[in-house]
Amino acid sequence: GAVVSQHPSRVICKSGTSVKIECRSLDFQATTMFWYRQFPKQSLMLMATSNEGSKATYEQGVEKDKFLINHASLTLSTLTVTSAHPEDSSFYICSARARSVDTQYFGPGTRLTVL
Amino acid sequence: QKEVEQNSGPLSVPEGAIASLNCTYSDRGSQSFFWYRQYSGKSPELIMFIYSNGDKEDGRFTAQLNKASQYVSLLIRDSQPSDSATYLCAVSRADRGSTLGRLYFGRGTQLTVWP
Which of B112, B110, B105 is closest to B89 using CA atoms? Predict the structure, then answer.
């Protein structure tokens, strides 16, 4: 149990385009989903927390207009990187947590390369 | 002081030995403690969680928690080359007005198990 999927697993795009990443909880209802970014040889950095049906809460320094998060259902959250630039190239990972459970389960990640 | 501190390693042990990974945290209000394993280029995978003081065993893995010392450890018995990965310690602390919290990650300890 506790399977989280992400799509796509890898994306290469041109500078200025927008990229949407989907995160799905496959076998449980995720009341809260988290979006992380990880640069090479660094630890995970939390970008934002999203609760189903509510606006996402962004961490300090993360531009909410650039990283659009939608959590419209209990099994799906999306992260859209708008007008992507090379410095946005990173490994984006989502995690999901069920109601009243403190454990987060991670998706397999999406590697974004912006040319 | 960082929320969660780990020795970055690398920690190198021979196959069959016990690998000991350590983690300290700064906030006494922390409530849940997790160990994740991350292979290179992959997302974190939950290994164990522990909430109460003492030891918790699961197969070759034992998590130890000492809240008085604000210390969490992970022991891996009979280490295998396939255990070679980065091990992330994560601590959960409830946000204000909520019973559940976000995860605070250490930078990870790189473990190498040599044959």
Answer: B105
Give me the phi and psi of A19, to 5 degrees please. -130, 130
pLDDT tens for the 115 residues of chain B, in order: 678 999 878 999 999 999 999 999 999 888 899 999 999 999 999 999 999 999 999 999 999 999 999 999 999 999 999 999 999 999 998 766 555 678 999 999 999 999 9
Establish if A60 touches chain B: CB-CB under 8 angstroms: no
Give A108's contacts in chain B (Cβ within 8 Å). Answer: 42-43
Find out whether A89 and A19 touch, Cβ atoms under 8 Å: no
Q: Which of B34, B49, B102 sits opposite A46 (nearest CB)?
A: B102
Q: Does A49 lie at the interface with B, CB-CB under 8 angstroms?
A: yes
A46 contact B CB<8A:
yes
Alpha carbon of residue B96 to chain centroid: 25
Q: Report the alpha-carbon distance of residue B64 to residue B82 in Å, rounded.
A: 22
Task: Quote the strand ranges of B29-83, DSSP E.
Answer: 32-38, 45-50, 54-58, 61-66, 71-76
The amino acid occupying position A78 is T
